[in-house]
Structure formats: structure tokens, C-alpha cells
Backbone:
């Protein structure tokens, strides 16, 4: 355990690690003869610098999966935010889409929900408001049951032929 602690103390400190690597490299070199010239290694090609550069790359790459995940989640959010609404087309005045809303032309019949119709066809009036069943309609409007029966459609009568 003492050897493991000493190894951690040396390897966790960059300065001590560099000294250790140089000592190991010097011990591994063969003895030199009188005629041989010592091999000079420029500092920019030192193995220690290569190890430190490799460590920096490894540290930088540790965060890469998290960054990639965040970018994918952001892309999914953006795509779903725009795709969920679909292309928006402006509604032509008086057009019928089957949904009764304020301004819709409606045909009314006693005892049945109102029916949205195109405004260029015969209709009884226009929806002035759509309110919950427990709220009253505005003045000068008559109320009828909305399709689905979950609200009131307040109709301002126009009676077109």
C-alpha cells in the first residue's frame, strides 16, 4: 500500500511525474562509449511533452460525450418545437374548419349543438364568444351548446338566406 501511495504522489503531480519519467529514460539508455556522441533531444520533441499533450487531449475528450448529448437534446427540442405546429396557413375569412371559435359562422337548430358553416353559405349568425357552461354569454347574444357539449357558443344572430 505504501508503494501505491508513493506512486500516486509522484504521478498525480506533473512536476514529479516529469522528473520520474526523465529518471526512467536515463536508466533505460545504454552506456555510452568514448567514441559515441550523446544523443540530444530538442525540448519540443521530449517524450514528457508528448505525454502531457496526450493527457490534455484525454481531459478535453472526457467532456465530449456530455457536449454531444446536450447538442442532440437541443436539436430534438428545436425540431419538435417547430414540427409540432406544422406549417401555419392563414385562415381565409369565412372559411369553415369544423371548429367553432369566435367569428365562426354557425347554423343553429333547437336541441342540437351549433354547426360551423362557411360564411358564404346560409347561416344563422356568428359566434361572438365561446364560454364554459357555467358562465353567461355577453349581452345581445343567444347561447347554444358547442359541438362536444362542453361549452356554450354565444351567437350574435344575423339570419342570412
Residues:
Amino acid at each position: 500500500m505504501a508503494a501505491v501511495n508513493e506512486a500516486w504522489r509522484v504521478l498525480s503531480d506533473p512536476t514529479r511525474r516529469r522528473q520520474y519519467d526523465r529518471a526512467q529514460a536515463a536508466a533505460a539508455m545504454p552506456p555510452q562509449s568514448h567514441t559515441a556522441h550523446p544523443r540530444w533531444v530538442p525540448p519540443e520533441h521530449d517524450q514528457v511533452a508528448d505525454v502531457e499533450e496526450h493527457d490534455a487531449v484525454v481531459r478535453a475528450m472526457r467532456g465530449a460525450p456530455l457536449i454531444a448529448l446536450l447538442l442532440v437534446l437541443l436539436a430534438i427540442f428545436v425540431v419538435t418545437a417547430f414540427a409540432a405546429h406544422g406549417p401555419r396557413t392563414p385562415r381565409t375569412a369565412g372559411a369553415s374548419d369544423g371548429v367553432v371559435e369566435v367569428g365562426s359562422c354557425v347554423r343553429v337548430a333547437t336541441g342540437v349543438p351549433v354547426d360551423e358553416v362557411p360564411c358564404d353559405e346560409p347561416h344563422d349568425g356568428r359566434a361572438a364568444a365561446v364560454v364554459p357552461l357555467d358562465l353567461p354569454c355577453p349581452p345581445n347574444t343567444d347561447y347554444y351548446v358547442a359541438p362536444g357539449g362542453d361549452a356554450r357558443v354565444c351567437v350574435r344572430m344575423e339570419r342570412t338566406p
